[in-house]
Specification:
The model has no long low-confidence stretch (mean pLDDT 90). Strands 2-3-1-4 form a four-stranded antiparallel sheet, covered by helices on one side. With 114 residues, the chain is of the alpha+beta class. The protein is built from two helices and four strands, in the order βαββαβ. The protein has one domain: Alpha-Beta Plaits (2-Layer Sandwich), CATH 3.30.70.100.
């Protein structure tokens, strides 16, 4: 019997869509609950991200608000691009409709290096 050799890719691509959000102090608890109960599940329901992690930034000046980061994980640039082109705009508008100017956000996209 011969030996079966399976060649795996040297690098498995993981794309991380990172959102960093500074939230006004007076809405922070309600905002976190909304993220966990509504917004994040809506993003995951697109089936374009496989998982997420949410963090509160430490050692930050919180006089103007609390800063959070949410990282969404996907396996290809194509899946990320589909999310941006098909879903991101509508979901961002829902956030602005609910919270108005009580938060500021910026987004970055990263590729995991293994």
């Amino acid at each position: 019997m011969g030996l079966l050799v399976i060649s795996l890719p040297k690098f498995i691509i993981m794309i991380v869509y990172n959102t960093t959000i500074k939230v006004s102090l007076h809405i922070a608890d309600e905002w976190v609950a909304w993220q966990k109960q509504e917004h994040i599940p809506e993003i995951l329901a697109t089936k374009l991200f496989d998982d997420y992690e949410m963090y509160r930034l430490m050692e930050q000046d919180e006089e103007d608000g609390i800063t959070f980061t949410i990282q969404y994980f996907t396996t290809s640039k194509e899946r990320y691009q589909k999310y941006i082109s098909s879903f991101a705009g509508v979901l961002r508008e829902k956030a602005f409709a609910k919270w108005g100017n009580q938060f500021t956000a910026f987004r970055t996209v990263m590729e995991a290096v293994k």
